[in-house]
Amino acid sequence: MLQGIYAISDEILTPYQEIFTMLSKAIKGGVSIFQFRDKTHQDNQIESLVTELMDYCKQEGVLFVLNDRIELAMKLQTKGLHIGKKQEVNPYSLDELLMIRKSYGGILGVSCYGDLQLAQNAKEIGADYIAFGSCFTSSTKTQAKVISLDLFQKIQGIKKCAIGGINQQNIHQLQNADMAACISSIWKGDITQNILNLKRNWKKI
């Protein structure tokens, strides 16, 4: 399940009144994983939407991942949870990661940016996958530092997700990643065709 094109929602590019239609088109193109990311609303404001998206993804055979909202993920027993930094500032410590892993029984992904030690910590506590990025200059996170793609070869024994600036022209460079997470290159334009093009150009799936 942890392989292929990984679609991430965006509050501007995937407005909530259109998100199910857009997700349907992404699934038609062959997306494997869908992450719901919302940075502005309170948990209780999006709980019903998260529940509906979870159910829809389950029905369609796509892995649903909730971004950063640990308590909500535990409450709803989401299939997947992805965590980055605390309040977008500091990475989780090894002890904090271990506590999250012990409390959350679903698929756990951890953002490691360009830090091999963070990746080792995530592997040590039993995370299911790590994410390295930004792999290329990102239009979504313009301040994100671009990493060396050699990182994907420097850690083994855990699934690896590439993120940041991935598009149809550069995805072929990610042969050492198991998943390619995209935002703009999926949701802008013809969603189904965008994913088909990404898969074709990646040449590994």
TrEMBL record:
| Domain Thiamine phosphate synthase/TenI positions | 5-186
Segments passing through the bilayer: none
Which pathway is this protein engaged in?
Answer: Cofactor biosynthesis; thiamine diphosphate biosynthesis
**What keywords appear on the UniProt entry?**
Thiamine biosynthesis
Recorded hits in CDD domains, A to Z, give: TMP_TenI
Domain of life the protein comes from: Bacteria
InterPro entries xrefs: Aldolase_TIM, ThiamineP_synth_sf, ThiamineP_synth_TenI
Any single Pfam family the record assigns to this protein: TMP-TENI
Family matches, as PANTHER family: THIAMINE-PHOSPHATE PYROPHOSPHORYLASE, THIAMINE-PHOSPHATE SYNTHASE
This chain belongs to the protein called Thiamine phosphate synthase
Q: Which organism is it from?
A: Helicobacter colisuis
